[in-house]
Write a structure and sequence with these properties.
It comes from Rhizoctonia solani. The protein is of the alpha/beta class. The chain is 26% helix and 23% strand. It has one domain. Helix 3 crosses helix 6. 32% of the residues are buried.
Length: 259
């Protein structure tokens, strides 16, 4: 089957970042754009008090915007391990994938790739770009404004944790007794933590519901939305919500589902 007839595509994008100071010796791929982080990032977070890692960083980093031409027949796109702001993929989908029904935008995170150079070269504990409960309505409105251009979108998975950023430090310091990320390993995040569930699950669900209602009212075809879940197994699962609509297709209510 040729690429022009492809209906489902999975992209693993961990190499979408390049570091200066000779850390990556091979020449850049001619099929990539190397850009400094854009100013119009669509990310949640209180950026006045918690600058995004794309803004404050000890060495220069560049995104590789891959020249991936998505087939117009595509119905499902899954993007994993990305450092690139979601808006890059969203705008490409709008332009190239009129039939798309399911979109997954999953990040490289502290919980999946702690050895990643991206995190090692950021200020300690900095992860606001994918982990915050601040500024969520504005973030959801911006994403909805773009995604309503995807006329057939039914399912959406976004690898953003809509949990208070303090949850990371709270777990390390109060629940495990560690003094920071320098002593943490993936095992710290892989083990279940009842204290985290008690403290953060319900507030996070409320923020997720608020964001999904904004998305659902702007995107009339949307029926299922998932966020990255801090309270999931190993912190890498999804918190999934099903959207109920009335006979006219208007938003009615949400129901959490296990996925």
């Amino acid at each position: 089957m040729g690429l022009n007839f492809l209906e489902e595509l999975e992209l693993h994008c961990h190499q979408d970042i390049r570091f200066e100071e000779g850390e990556i010796s091979q020449p850049p791929n001619p099929d990539t754009h190397l850009d400094p982080p854009p100013a119009d990032l669509y990310e949640p977070g209180d950026h006045a008090t918690h600058p995004l890692p794309e803004v404050v960083q000890p060495i220069q980093m560049f995104y590789r915007r891959l020249k991936v031409y998505l087939p117009a027949t595509l119905r499902t796109l899954r993007v994993y391990d990305s450092h690139t702001p979601d808006i890059y993929f969203i705008r490409q989908v709008i332009e190239q994938c009129p039939l798309l029904q399911s979109l997954t935008l999953s990040r490289c995170t502290l919980f999946t790739r702690q050895e990643c150079k991206f995190w090692k070269n950021l200020p300690q504990g900095e992860s606001d770009s994918y982990f915050s409960d601040q500024g969520v309505p504005a973030y959801a409105s911006a994403v909805a404004g773009e995604l309503k251009g995807v006329k057939n979108l039914r399912e959406l998975e976004i690898g953003i944790y809509l949990t208070a950023h303090a949850a990371i430090g709270t777990h390390l310091q109060q629940h495990t007794g560690l003094d920071g990320l320098s002593r943490a390993s993936l095992k710290v995040w892989e083990e279940p933590c009842e204290e985290c569930n008690i403290q953060y699950r319900e507030p996070t669900l409320a923020v997720e519901a608020e964001a999904i209602e904004i998305l659902a009212r702007e995107i009339p075809t949307l029926s299922l939305v998932s966020w990255a879940s801090f309270c999931s197994e190993k912190r890498i699962g999804w918190s999934t919500h099903r959207i109920s609509r009335d006979q006219e297709g208007n938003f009615e209510k949400l129901a959490s589902v296990t996925k």
